[in-house]
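Hey all, sorry for the wall of text incoming. These are the two entities for the joint prediction.
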Amino acid sequence: MQFWPLMKNTFLLCIIGFVIGFPLPIIISLMLNAMKSKKMSKVLQTIFNGPHFISLVVLVGMLTLFFGRYGLVNNIAAHFGGERVSYFLESSAFRPLYILSSNWQDFGWSAIIYIAALSNVDLGQHEAAILDGASRFQRVIHVDLPAIMPMISVMLIMSIGGLMGVGYEKALLMQTDGNLGVSELIATYVYKQGLTGVPNQSYATAIGLFNSVINVVLLIIANTTSKKFSENSLW
Amino acid sequence: MSVKTAAKKNSPIRLGAGDKVFYTINTIFLALMALIVLYPLYFIVIASISDPDAVLGGRVVLYPVQLTLDGFRKILERADIWRGYLNTIIYTLLTVVLSLVVTIPAGWALSRRTLPGKKAFMIYFIIPMFFGGGLIPFYNVMSSLGLVNTMWSIVLPSILSVWNLFMTKTFFESSIPDGLIEAAKIDGAGEYRVFTSLVLPLSKAILAVMALYYAIGQWNSYFNAMIFLQDETMYPLQLVLKEILIASESTVGGSGETILEQFRLANQIKYVSVIVSSVPVLLLYPFVQKYFSQGVMIGSLKG
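and here's what came out:
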């Protein structure tokens, strides 16, 4: 495979994954924090964290069970007269499956850090806002959200730095002949070129290194930008 | 929902109509999310104890149909799964013990301001967090060390995670006061004595968190095993599962009839193996989850 398609696949998967996966835990943590019943909020957190501990192999196995040709999703579609689709052989389904399953697995876990930050919000600010007649929703936007902004920027820098380091271990598990056109990433290609079949190690090492360099450049850009516009930076 | 207790604590003022709408929408949305998280897990369980034909025919949706434990009976006969289980337990135990031996003292040393060359050590540890040599050099190093196809190729690369190291360091920085250490030193305790008799007994929380993190990481990993192990009898559970759960999907071809038959036989085993392999982790999870979240919070103290 050519280098640029690999680059494009890696980049698109990361960007789309980031656009969905970054805000979701923030929204969830704000919502959990704004629940009236703290007990129920705790129960929900426990439920949301659970999938984080499922292994990638099992997660992808579950995906094949649900989205395979004779899986639950197709069974339901067929029940309503739809066509059976082998989602794993469709290249158009790869990114949605990958990103949605990642979010399913980790949104609760990623929310913990924000929930921890939210628990330190000054109650006096909330009381002052209530006296000023702010609704609960307004307090979420004007009290809670600003309070976790520093944490959000740190997490933003970190995730931009790790942007191109997507979970290739998962992509590798999800690859089929049908979706290879979009599921082949830099890292999975490096693995195949360098360690399977007839190895071409120097080429594989070179593109792997290139990937690392992009990552570092992204991290430096993110950190510098954040330093310029806010007080927050990693170094 | 226990509206009364929470309302008492949080808002001294009566709820406005807008707030009622907000709370309702909030709760409904989060309940939906909980359903989305729980249903797939629930489905795996009911599918594993239902008749495979009913599962394939789409008749199992909300509750098990034609209860059967055949799947579990079949999986008891699978020698490869149980061998994988045993291998994984061995790898996990070794990883946990060695990782604690490495991570805890390193975290303690890095947390002390008196450590000579502290900044240099920190940079040395930070670099691989964002910049790695890559997969091929990693493989070649392991190969040159003669570790390929030994269990050390699984255990050794996992015994230090820089994330965990920094979490440990942050824990020590925030929870062991300098004054305590100085007092012990005035009483004549050396560095080693301070670490073993004073610091370790105060660090049970971080020891638990680290042991759990490393254990889960090793229990769930498959990639290193896939690239380093050729001998199937050494395969960890996840690699065995990979063959059962995933390998078949991409190779399926041929006519509809054979596919269906293949699925009928393999499907139940898949559901059951998902359960069997995740049971230890999921059973443990409710009891240890507070430690896990504690870990994340320790790590976040700095940020």
